[in-house]
Amino acid sequence: MPIKTALEKAAQRDADLVKIAPNAKPPVCKIMDYGKYRFEQSKREKEARKSQKIIKLKEIKLGLNIDVHDFNTKVKQAERFVKDGDKVKVFIRFRGRELGHPELGVDTMNRFASACETFAAIEKPAKMEGRNMLMFLAPKKN
User: Fold this and answer.
1) pTM (2 d.p.)
2) Which of 51, 73, 88 represents a domain boundary (last residue)?
């Protein structure tokens, strides 16, 4: 139908003429209350945002010569973070002469990863970046 008659029909119904598919041949339009449509759309978006889970990145710092009890405490901390649905960044900062022994850091990271394997998956394995060794853990998928 011509645009003029469509606009007249929309005015009679006290509504707006909205282009649904402007690239189609001929363009497709719809008569609707545009303000109400926008309001409902924003309402749906708010509901979708409420149901979303925001994943945070939590950090756990290990020492190169970490003791057993401290190690177990860090594992429990990582378990709590992962159970809450957050990702965990585990890192070791090498200081001074510790930089000469990165294999000790790899051993500590592997021990930590094996202690966490029941509840977490390794997203990125242990890797040196400057003075730090990093590893990322994520919640296991069911």
Assistant:
1) 0.62
2) 51
